[in-house]
Amino acid sequence: MMNVRLCVITAAIFVYQCFAADSTLVQQSSLVLQVGDRDTAAQKAIVRAESVGGWLLCWNEWKVSLRVPSGELRRYLASLDSIGLKVDETFSSQDQGAEIENLRASILSRKKLLDSYFAMVKSTNGNQVQTIERALVDLISQIEIDEGRLHSMEAKVREALVDISFRIENRNLPAPTGQSHFAWLNHLNLTEHRGEFK
Question: What is the end-to-end Cα distance of the chain in Å, rounded?
């Protein structure tokens, strides 16, 4: 009975690992948060991304771009509710499985061709070696390009892109008394200078 349970558990783990490894979805989320202080909100969003294994990609005055592990994306997006009010949110996913498989097949076939070229070098004379060497250089370059594309694609699958834009909360309207909520404005004596702006 114990052996049966171990087999079932092992099979379940194997299925989960295969599913996780074979995931080929590139996920992206864009949202707008309404906040009181965008710098504080941006810092909180970055800290939370780092806490789930993510990292900062770009940060400017109004926007933060982050990479978050794809498996943590939903949980991370839900955690942003406590930072600000979501006024807009979009989510997209694209299956890159076909392109990834094509790249893997291309790399494999070119590496086999590379092996055959190396074998040919050993059995050819001096004149033919130069021709084969040029073909080798071109083939190695093509393999490196494909491997770079494959690594980039796999990185996008592993880590979702999150773009967060910030909108400042609406300020209170000026008081009917003419007094500002900003104390320093109340001491500028603007009524004396109002005529200068007409």
Answer: 92
- Reference 55, options 167, 158, 148, 168; nearest CA is 158
pLDDT of res. 132: 83
Average pLDDT of adjacent 10-residue blocks, the chain of 198 residues: 35 33 82 92 95 94 93 94 93 92 94 88 77 88 94 93 90 60 66 63
DSSP class of 172: P
- Looking at residue 139, its pLDDT comes to 93
* Contact between residue 29 and residue 163 where contact means Cβ atoms under 8 Å apart: yes
Phi/psi class of residue 178: alpha, beta or left (left: φ > 0; alpha: ψ in -120 to 50)?
Answer: left
What are the strands, taking DSSP E only, across the chain?
25-35, 55-59, 63-69, 85-95, 159-168
Residue with tokens 């909108």: 167
Backbone angles phi, psi at 19, to 5 degrees: -60, -45
How far CA 129 is from CA of 39, 112, 114, 137, in Å, comes to 62, 19, 14, 12
